[in-house]
Structure formats: C-alpha cells, structure tokens
Amino acid sequence: MLRKVKYSKIAIVIFLTILIWVYADLAQDEELPVSNATITVAKSHPSLWVSFNGEPSASIGGIVLKGPASKISDIRQRVRDGSLYFEFFLDAGQEGMVEPGEYTLDLLDFLRKSDMIRGFGLTAESCKPTKLTVNVIQLVEKSLTVQCFDEGGNSQEAERIDPREAKMFVPEDWGRDKLIAQVTLTPGEIEQARLAPIAKTPHIVLGTSQIREAASAVEIKMPPEERLTEYTIERATLFVAPSPNLQGQYSCKVTNLPQVLRPIYIRATDVARRAYQLQRRPQMTLYIYDDDTDKGQEEQSRAVVYNFPEEFVRRNEIELKNPQQPAEAKFVLVPLSSAGGP
C-alpha cells in the first residue's frame, strides 16, 4: 500500500512538472513576420475565370504569425533555409464566390482559417494588405483553332492537326483573332513530330499567365525538315559598328575591303535566303570595341558577324556554307584630329 502511494505521488509530480513546462512554453509566445507569402487561385469551374485583377496570384507583403516560442523558432529556421514557403490557395467556391462579379476577400480572416497556419499551431495576428479584390468572370464555350508554336512563341506550320479545333471556355468578348488554342512544342517534340504524330493538349492563357488546358489532346504531325539549298549572295554589304565611346574620335579603315565583300556562300531555305537579301540591315557587321585603341594604329583583324534573320536562325533554316570560316576584316583605327576628350 505504501509503495502504491509513493508511485502515485511520483506520477502526480511528473504530470504537474510537464504541465508547468507546457504552460511555460505557451506563455512564451513569439511573433514571426513573413514577408514573401503568396495567395493563388485554386482550380475553379471551367466556365468561371477567378483572378486577382486579372492575375492568378497576389503577393502578401507582410504577415505576422504568433505561437509558442519553440514552434516559431523551428518555422523561422525552415523559412531561412528555404524548406518552407507560405503559399495559400483560394477556393472561390468555399468562399461563396460562385457568381460573376467583384468580391472583397478579408485576407486576415482567410489566413486565420488556413489549414497550413493552424496545422503549425500558430495564429495570424495581422497582414498587409488586409483585403484583396477577387474578380469572377463568366466564360462561354467556343470553338478555337489549334495552332502550333515553338518555345520562343514563334508560329510553326503543321502538316496535320487532328482535330483542327478544340472547344474551350473563353471570355465572351474574345474576337475571332483571339480564338486560338496554342500547342507549344519543344525542339525535341518538333523533330519527333516530323517522324510520327504526337499528342499534345492545347491551351489558352487568361490574363497574363493563367493557363487553361483543353479537355482532350490533339495529334500533331509536322512536315519533313526542308532541305537547305546552297546560295551565293553576290553583292554583300558591310556595316562598321564602333563603340559609342569611340564615335567622333576615331575612324575605322578596313584594309582588305575587297576580300571582305566577296560573295557570301550560304545554305538556306528559299524563304530565309530572300529574307536575308531583302532585309534593311547590312549582310555583315564589323564591331569595334573600346580596347581596340590599345594597339594604336597597328593593323588588327576580327571576324565579321553575319546578320542572318533571327527567326530563321532559330529554325536552323540559314547558315554559312562553312560556319568555321567567316570573313575576316583587317582594320586600322585612325585618331581624328578634331577628337576631343571622352
């Protein structure tokens, strides 16, 4: 009996000690400022476009969280080392935003109900801004023409797209010029689609960056790669581009101009060749740099830059016949007698 009494007393003492520690920890609440949180629109009904003034997410500049010191310390460390990031998701349906219109979201109340914050055993004390405007726009279903683009946003002509149209929900005020569902292809996918059809899901972009995908994929077949033909550009042009710091102080004399202006031998598609010949820019540019003056009037040499149209370069539709042997210009920098200080 005495032994039982002693064990009971020990158990009571231990229990009370733990309670004291717990209450002591709870009594030492600390605050944690969070400055880089975001709130993002969760997936909503396809016929509704929910946004923060057209954007899919909004920054929350300042949140102050409060909780036990031990938990605050742990979360602060996780935020510092990048293993924890505060991102909240707005479910418009749960917030009662199911009809088209403009709503005001009480951000502090939203954060206090957050499962993320409550899961950490913390409370939200304050935030900036305190309110956010939420826009809900009704979308209508329309048939969109499917078009292919590369990763740089350049249109790519497909041999076959099946089906050619995709039904999607879009803003009612979209005109015919905007009724396009995009398929973005990587360089590898373009090459793969030249050999056999590939499946890709078309999408549209609402606002600046909210992507909506179609309900089903389409099959894309790209045309065989066009073979490059050898061409000769007979009357080449050269532009000398000095550094702005050298303008008015030096003139550049190209000492082997006839050799530089020899015909240019290229490999290109016919469209790329014509674009290169008819562009307003010269076919070649010789760049002169500030430190070229370090050699005084000594003759120097530098490979010229060929001003091939960038869109055709990206598609590998134009190149020098021998890329390893660009024309090399020899030049001398001559100080101008009227040149002043830099």
Structure in words:
- It contains 8 helices and 26 strands.
- It is of the alpha+beta class and 342 residues long.
Secondary-structure map with pairings?
Layout: H1 2-27, E1 29-34, E2 37-41, E3 48-51, E4 57-60, E5 62-68, H2 69-80, E6 87-90, E7 101-106, H3 107-112, H4 115-119, E8 123-128, E9 131-150, E10 155-156, E11 160-162, E12 165-171, E13 180-185, H5 187-195, E14 198-200, E15 203-206, E16 210-213, E17 218-221, E18 229-233, E19 238-242, E20 250-254, H6 257-260, E21 264-268, H7 270-278, E22 284-288, E23 300-303, E24 305-306, H8 310-314, E25 318-320, E26 328-335
Parallel strand pairs: 2-6, 9-13, 19-22
Antiparallel strand pairs: 1-5, 2-4, 3-9, 5-8, 7-9, 9-10, 9-12, 11-17, 14-17, 15-16, 18-21, 20-26, 21-25, 22-24, 23-26
